């Protein structure tokens, strides 16, 4: 990213990490590089908020993502991490949220991709099943209130 290092208090990766690749780009894959960049631009103590559409990550994978974030220099904020949904049933907002605080530089070792694999990475899932698994987030209204499950 064309941003200076250690400059920001907040970095948000909203519903897009699942669009990055697990193919290696040099030493790291694209998905890991995105998280490393968030760490690079954050000040110590800065927050990283990662959201993924529900269905892209399972509960077990969410726990692995959290372990991966720790490997990459973050501390999970448990009260703001997990599956969240809108309290207004009209909006249909339903996502996985990982909130983490930068506490260190990332490990220089590449992250095992099992820590950032998502449901969508299972190439055995057909297009029809994938469409059902990942409902559209484009619903009526604007989500102004949500709660964690």
Structure description:
The protein has 149 residues and is α+β, with helices and mostly antiparallel strands. 21% of the residues lie in helices and 29% in strands. It is built from 3 helices and 8 strands. The longest helix is centred in the middle third of the chain and has 13 residues, at 59-71. Residues 124-130 have low confidence and may be disordered.
Sum up the structure in keywords:
29% strand, single chain, globular, six-stranded mixed β-sheet, alpha+beta, two-stranded antiparallel ribbon, 149 residues
* Average pLDDT metric: 86
Encode the helix/strand succession as letters.
EEEHEHEEEHE
Radius of gyration (Å): 16 Å
> Class by helix and strand content?
alpha+beta
Strand content: 25-35%
Low-pLDDT residue spans: 124-130
Instruction: State the shape.
Output: globular
Report on the biggest sheet. Answer: 6 strands, mixed
Helix content: 10-25%
Count of distinct strands? 8
Continuous helix count:
3
How far apart lie the N and C ends? 33 Å
Question: Topology of this structure?
Answer:
Blueprint (H helix, E strand, L loop, with lengths): L7 E7 L9 E2 L2 E2 H12 E12 L5 H13 L2 E3 L5 E5 L7 E9 L24 H7 L12 E3 L1
């Amino acid at each position: 990213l064309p941003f200076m290092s250690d400059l920001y208090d907040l970095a948000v990766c909203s519903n897009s990490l699942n669009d990055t690749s697990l193919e290696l780009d040099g030493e790291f894959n694209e998905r890991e590089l995105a998280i490393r960049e968030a760490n690079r631009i954050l000040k110590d103590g800065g927050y990283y908020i990662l959201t993924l559409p529900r269905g892209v990550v399972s509960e077990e994978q969410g726990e692995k993502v959290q372990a991966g974030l720790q490997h990459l220099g973050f501390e999970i904020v448990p009260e703001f991490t997990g599956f969240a949904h809108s309290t207004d049933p009209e909006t249909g907002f339903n996502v996985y949220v990982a909130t983490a605080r930068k506490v260190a530089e990332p490990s220089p070792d590449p992250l095992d991709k099992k820590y950032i694999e998502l449901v969508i990475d299972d190439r055995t899932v057909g297009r029809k099943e994938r469409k059902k698994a990942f409902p559209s987030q484009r619903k009526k209204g604007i989500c102004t209130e949500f709660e964690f499950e």
